[in-house]
Amino acid sequence: AQSVSQHNHHVILSEAASLELGCNYSYGGTVNLFWYVQYPGQHLQLLLKYFSGDPLVKGIKGFEAEFIKSKFSFNLRKPSVQWSDTAEYFCAVNSFSGTYKYIFGTGTRLKVLA
Amino acid sequence: DTGVSQNPRHKITKRGQNVTFRCDPISEHNRLYWYRQTLGQGPEFLTYFQNEAQLEKSRLLSDRFSAERPKGSFSTLEIQRTEQGDSAMYLCASSFSAGADTQYFGPGTRLTVL
Lengths: 114, 114
Fold this sequence. Notes:
The complex is a heterodimer.
Chain A: E1 3-5, E2 10-14, E3 19-21, E4 24-26, E5 31-38, E6 44-50, E7 56-58, E8 64-68, E9 73-78, E10 87-97, E11 99-104, E12 108-113
Parallel strand pairs in A: 2-12
Antiparallel strand pairs in A: 1-4, 3-9, 5-6, 5-10, 7-8, 8-9, 10-11, 10-12
Chain B: E1 5-7, E2 10-13, E3 19-24, E4 31-37, E5 44-50, E6 53-57, E7 65-68, E8 75-79, E9 88-95, E10 104-105, E11 109-113
Parallel strand pairs in B: 2-11
Antiparallel strand pairs in B: 1-3, 3-8, 4-5, 4-9, 5-6, 7-8, 9-10, 9-11
């Protein structure tokens, strides 16, 4: 069965620190990969996505993620976090196995201290 | 683009009662998804529609759950004979097509079963 693992459940950083959130998935076929973010009191929204091409994907607000196929990973990075990045981050995978279905990770709650 | 809307935003019900939630997707979106999210977890896929056709249902969706999208526009999710374990946030999302297309999420309906 497909699964998505996010190993960091809670992360606390000071402003200007660098961020890397891990995401690993289990599926051998072709996948599309996503990072969604949920700011406090807001809807889930897309941060970035990968479906083909350059494995280094840039998203909104200075975030980027790298797809490493051999490691089944899609880690999210940001060189310098801001207080406004405080949010919950979800990695998701979707693949065509008969129909398209999205699998989400359990999320990482990030708190950035001013 | 007015976004995905869900009603009601909160529902408190007694065990054994039936509840129905509504989702209005972004108007030009063909695909509509329902998810359930509990505390500390990511969204769990329940079902999705392409236009009016329900293409997939998760094994999480017991016989007490039913979803419809009668005219390929809004959708309803009904839970019959609610149980305390049904307490969760029910999220709706829509997308224009499949695969790598971005899902746009609504604010969710928070269900509490007493």
